[in-house]
Amino acid sequence: MNISALQKERAKYQPKLPDSLKGVVKLSEGAKTESVADQNEIKKIFPYTYGMPIVTFEKGRKQDGQKPLNVGVILSGGQAPGGHNVISGIFDGIKKIDPASKLYGFLGGPAGLVDHKYIELTGSIIDKYRNTGGFDIIGSGRTKLEEQLQFDEGLEIAKGLKLDALVIIGGDDSNTNACVLAEYYAEKNSGVQVIGCPKTIDGDLKNSLIETSFGFDTATKVYSELIGNIERDANSAKKYWHFIKLMGRSASHIGLECALQTQPNITLISEEVAAKKQTLGEIVSYIANIVAHRAANGDNFGVALIPEGLIEFIPEMKVLISELNDLLADGTVTGKDFKELKKGDRREWVASHLANETADLFRSLPSGIASQLTLDRDPHGNVQVSLIETEKLLGEMVKSLLSDMKKRGEYNGKFSTQYHFFGYEGRCAAPSNFDADYCYSLGYTAALLISEGKTGYMASIRNLTAPAKDWIAGGVPVTMMMNLEKRHGYFKPVIQKALVDLNGAPFKYFASKRDEWALDSDYIYPGPIQYFGPSEVCDQPTETLKLEKQGK
Known about the structure:
Blueprint: H1 5-11, E1 25-32, H2 39-45, E2 53-59, E3 70-75, H3 83-97, E4 102-106, H4 110-114, E5 118-120, H5 123-129, H6 148-160, E6 165-170, H7 172-187, E7 193-198, H8 216-237, E8 241-246, H9 253-262, E9 266-267, H10 270-275, H11 280-296, E10 302-307, H12 310-313, H13 315-328, H14 333-340, H15 343-352, H16 356-364, H17 367-372, H18 390-407, E11 417-422, H19 424-427, H20 433-451, E12 457-462, E13 472-477, E14 482-487, E15 490-495, H21 505-519, H22 535-538, H23 543-550
Parallel strand pairs: 3-4, 3-6, 6-7, 7-12, 8-10, 8-11, 9-10
Antiparallel strand pairs: 1-2, 2-13, 4-5, 12-13, 14-15
Helix pairs in contact: 3-5, 3-20, 8-9, 11-18, 13-16, 15-16
């Protein structure tokens, strides 16, 4: 492995732990819990892991009789900065319990458990990956653990390795599957515990006890640096409007956080668009009017942030996408007919099979976007939103509207565009101090939950706006986060996604400032992540967390 000078220095960094996890700890149990919704149904589905208490670790007295732990770890889903530190925290935690403890990493995600592909993670391996980004220590994957055969295959290798527990590091879907697995193993009295850790840069795995998912802090700092660089270029060249699409399909947390860090001229929040039932035309008019007002002040430039999943939150576009999903689903007769058509004939063929209003909307779209909407569906039969260049859709439609406004004498400026999509740039960055500390604490907490015999829990670190020494470590029953949602025509238990709260302090602050930011060019240039220096520079949490704390 080639190592940069920065990585050599970062390897020396010792992540901070809450004081409560230093030395000997004891477990404190709270009241029994209920799911966030559909309590009776969730309880029936999870009789063995429902209603468990929230647990907290506190300083305690030395206990006798702690035995070595054998633990398996799985990285599931997309990468997020800090995953290696979660694994490092698990390793150090179980070794602190007993030096004879062993950690096994399943290769390539959940499929490694099912296919019995693993390695033992030794100290020499772990030390190479401390405080680094990426998931390359064991790899990740998107195999879903949903079927009994998978559970049984996993249990076979768990028994073979004499595992006490599995730790599944993933997002809401992965932790939902971890909860199902925990329930199955508890029902069989298998002796194998399952613990989850909250991962996703999208920030949509959060609640009152999971204050943020790991990786969100680092990813938004990476994106904000890039946005700040573009803002400075815009303020220097003074000739381009930059339309920047940001990763985050189901929620706009990334866009909101980046706006709070950089103060761009325009930021669209998908949840607000849905709540106000805004049309595509209204969104385009909103952007065009800001462009025109800035042009009237002599500013023919600006920066607009657009969430990746915006197009699915526009009610009329949501209807269009739903009709297209039904029309073009793989394996249907219409889907096969469509694929046999020449590209030039596909657009009108699609329009002719849509409802009248939806057909008119489809015909009004730029040809490139209309084509992207008809690309092959994902494995769930849905449009692949990340492949749709929403930033170009808006840019082209704004340009067309500005042309009409110019003819009416309502606009007299210049409009040139540059387009960007920031996604993969942030997923594997070296974790910020916050994420390095947070992830290490999550892993260490997972080890302690295992030592206490817990299963069906997600590791939790709270009080995250305080210094790390004052963080509160514990565990939250995953069933507490569950509700029923319709998937593939059936209601299934899933962890409830956390969307941007339009009544929350972060959004309210943003909304109070956006009109001012729209016309000013008083951008903030955050610069790169700071790894070394005073705590007030290097260890700060996100603006979202700070505002949420202030709002309570």
